[in-house]
Write a structure and sequence with these properties.
mainly alpha; 214 residues; 64% helix
Length: 214
């Protein structure tokens, strides 16, 4: 029997990172992987917003920075799923909607370069360029904006699933919607946590959920 070289084994494994998903696997991918990215994204963006409002600035308590980094990490993973096609390394929403069927985000078109650099490269960040439509906010001020854009894309993904000509795909719309709602409710828990309430009380602030389900 011919032996398979380590190099060929690596190539075979590489090709199998994004095999075609059957209906059960599609459901599991939404329920486990996409939901995992969304819930941590919304939770982190909510925490960032809370810290921004409270303006604690306690030495050694840099939770706002950690929340910002986490927000962008999970946002990038979801942006790649929604606006990019399936590759050998990751799935895109065309795995559900059909070849060439990906969503579009003009916001992400503008954000993708700075976001990529922010996450992957150590570089001079002393002169960040504004990224929002008003030309005021830079990347460090936009965790909530990124999360809201993801929620918009997620809702559009639900609508596209509902329009599918494949019954098994249409059925996934309900699951995707339920997981969006669950993630939003999870982010509300960040606002209502004992720690957040205590800091808000000390600062005389009234905290409210950042995201709402519609």
């Amino acid at each position: 029997m011919a032996k398979i070289s380590n190099a060929n084994k690596a190539k075979t494994t590489h090709r199998l990172r994004t095999p075609r998903l059957d209906s059960r696997q599609m459901k599991e991918y939404i329920r486990l992987h996409l939901f995992n990215e969304l819930r941590w994204l919304l939770g982190a963006a909510t925490e960032w917003s809370i810290q921004e409002q409270l303006n604690l600035k306690e030495v050694g308590y840099d939770i706002q920075v950690y929340a910002m980094d986490s927000t962008y990490l999970h946002a990038r993973a979801l942006f790649e799923f929604f606006v990019g096609p399936t590759t050998r390394n990751r799935y895109g929403c065309d795995a559900y909607l059909g070849p060439g069927s990906v969503l579009s985000s003009s916001s992400y078109d503008n954000w993708s370069g700075p976001l990529h650099s922010f996450l992957l490269h150590a570089q001079d960040r002393s002169k960040p360029r504004p990224l929002d439509s008003s030309g005021v906010k830079n990347l460090n001020e936009m965790p909530v904006d990124f999360a809201r854009e993801i929620l918009k894309l997620w809702a559009e993904f639900e609508r596209m699933l509902a329009k599918s000509g494949v019954p098994e795909i249409r059925e996934l719309m309900k699951l995707a919607r339920e997981k969006r709602q669950e993630a939003i409710k999870g982010a509300e828990c960040v606002v209502h946590s004992a720690v957040a309430k205590q800091h808000a009380k000390e600062k005389g602030k009234m905290l409210k959920p950042v995201f709402v389900f519609d």
